[in-house]
Amino acid sequence: MSDLGKHETDVLAAIAASADEGALEQVRVAALGKKGSISALLATLGKMAPDERKAHGAAINAVKDKVTETLAARRELLKSA
What we know:
The protein has 81 residues and is mainly alpha-helical. It has helices spanning 4-17, 21-32, 37-43, 50-80.
């Protein structure tokens, strides 16, 4: 779970580097898709103890929310450009 901050930074950097909506969609699928990296982290919660699940789940969901917001903002920026 210590890699969560680095993972968030990597995904946000990939979003910022997306030059068009197609590239942005690839980043979204890689992070949030059915087999995406953040989705995989969420899937690990079922194997954790309830107290761990609560702490890690909140952290993962915070990253997911930030990535989702950043994707939406970048998509709007690309559409207006």
